[in-house]
Amino acid sequence: MKKLSFLVMAGLLLAFFAFTFIKDGGIQGKVTPPEGAVQVLAVSGKDTLKTEINNGSFLFAAVKPGTYTLWVKAKAPYKDTSLENVAVVDSSTTDVGEIKLLQ
Predict the structure, then answer these.
(1) How far apart, in whole angstroms, are the C-alpha atoms of residue 99 and residue 93?
(2) Rounded to two decimals, what is the model's pTM?
(3) Nearest-5° angle of CA 12, CA 17, CA 91?
(4) DSSP the chain
(5) pLDDT at 65 over 70
(6) Of 46, 88, 51, whose CA–CA distance to 72 is shortest?
(7) Are 38 and 73 in contact (CB under 8 A)?
(8) Is the CB of residue 96 less than 8 Å from the CB of residue 29?
């Protein structure tokens, strides 16, 4: 009985620590021209994250691991654009590089 209790307790502790070691990731990139965009959205299923653009650069912090679609909301005369299949893995920031807006 003591062995069974010990094994159950060890299993619960292992499960707890497994979930605490999964860390969120991030997404970063740059929009050109910097004055052409207002906001960037990251969408995955029902989750939608928003961030502002600062001098053309954007950063999403504390992003759950998964696959996202980025939507760049542009100012006229530029057009909104999207970037699909942006993968985020735990504990690292995905750099999508430069996103060029078209007129």
Answers:
(1) 17
(2) 0.76
(3) 150
(4) -HHHHHHHHHHHHHHHHHHHT---EEEEEEEESGGGEEEEEEEETTEEEEEE-BTTEEEEEEEPSEEEEEEEEEPTTS--EEEEEEEE-TT-EEEEEEEEPP-
(5) yes
(6) 51
(7) yes
(8) yes
Q: What is the mean pLDDT of the chain?
A: 87
Q: Which residue has the tokens 């299923």?
A: 45
CA distance to 20, 23, 31, 81, per residue, from 89 (Å):
15, 9, 22, 23
58, with CB counted inside 10 A (0-12, 13-18, 19+), is buried
Taking the C-alpha atoms of residue 28 and residue 49, their distance in angstroms, rounded to an integer, is 13
